[in-house]
Amino acid sequence: MIITNIQRFSLHDGPGIRTTVFLKGCSIRCPWCSNPENINHQIESYVKDGKEGFYGKEYSVDQVLKEVLKDKIFYEDNGGVTFSGGEALLYAKELLPLMQQIKQNNISIAVESSLFVPSSYLEMVIPFVDYFYVDLKVMDKERCSFLLKGNLDLFKSNLAILAKSKKFNVRIPVISGYTDNEDNIRSIIDVIREYSSSIEMVELIKGHNLGDNKYVSLGKDVPQKAEVSDLFLDEYRMKIIEAVEEVGVEICKI
Question: What pTM value is reported for the model?
Fold first, then answer.
């Protein structure tokens, strides 16, 4: 598997102290992506501050296991390993034996996913994942295909599969001009209402520019996007709470 970063002491990728493994390659193409180094599956060269390097390195299952076990002492009761991306579940076949060994070491597993993957990949890992973090982005079929190059029917099918098996957290990237229109907000709230009994928490994620330097390092144009206001986020949060009282909603500014 190709990994761009193994980030230790992560505090925003699941409960407790976690080691986040960023896998390279994604199944969709979000125009606002903050991790452009993880979009393509291939190892890519970059130039940063006049120095050349590479995004991505091949790891075996044993190599990744060795890295995450180094941090086991810090996980305590609720920490563990998080697989992110890109789209981590594209590596389901490689992750399966790794997850099995992680669980044998009594370490919790979290996965961050947009669920735009073959359903068999999702079903393969569900038994071994303790925490799922699922993105709700663009809920109109045509706009999803145009903006994200994603198949919304596949996403909805996978969401239904997941909800039958596990509770999960929802993350909503609030990106001006892409995900913040009223129709999309209503559609997202409808999804939250439909699956409210399976949702642990909803997180509204404010867009940021932390990935801009990565675009520059890859020789790519930096996405142009306006920032939504804090007032807008507060109003969005209240709309969800008023529609689905039983689900908690947080605003996250990473």
Answer: 0.94
State pLDDT tens for residues 83-101. 999 999 999 999 999 999 9
Long-range contacts of the stretch 59-67 (C-beta < 8 A, 24+) = 59/1, 59/2, 59/3, 61/1, 61/94, 61/97, 61/98, 61/101, 64/1, 64/3, 64/6, 64/21, 64/98, 65/98, 65/101, 65/102, 67/6, 67/19
Q: How many residues are recorded in the chain?
A: 254
* Residue 233, CA distances (Å) to 172, 173, 175, 192 in order: 11, 11, 11, 17
Burial per residue of 116-148, b for 16 or more beta-carbon CB atoms within 10 angstroms, e otherwise: bbeeebbebbeeebbbbbbbbbbbeeebbeebb
Contact 9, 74 (CB under 8 A): yes
Q: Which pLDDT tens digit goes with each residue over 61-89?
A: 999 999 999 999 999 888 999 999 999 99
Tokens describing residue 61: 């299952």
CA–CA dist 155, 122 (Å, integer):
11
Structure tokens at 23: 């896998």
Residue with tokens 């976690």: 18
Residue 229: CB atoms within 10 Å: 11
In terms of Cα–Cα distance, which of 137, 94, 142 is closest to 116?
Answer: 137
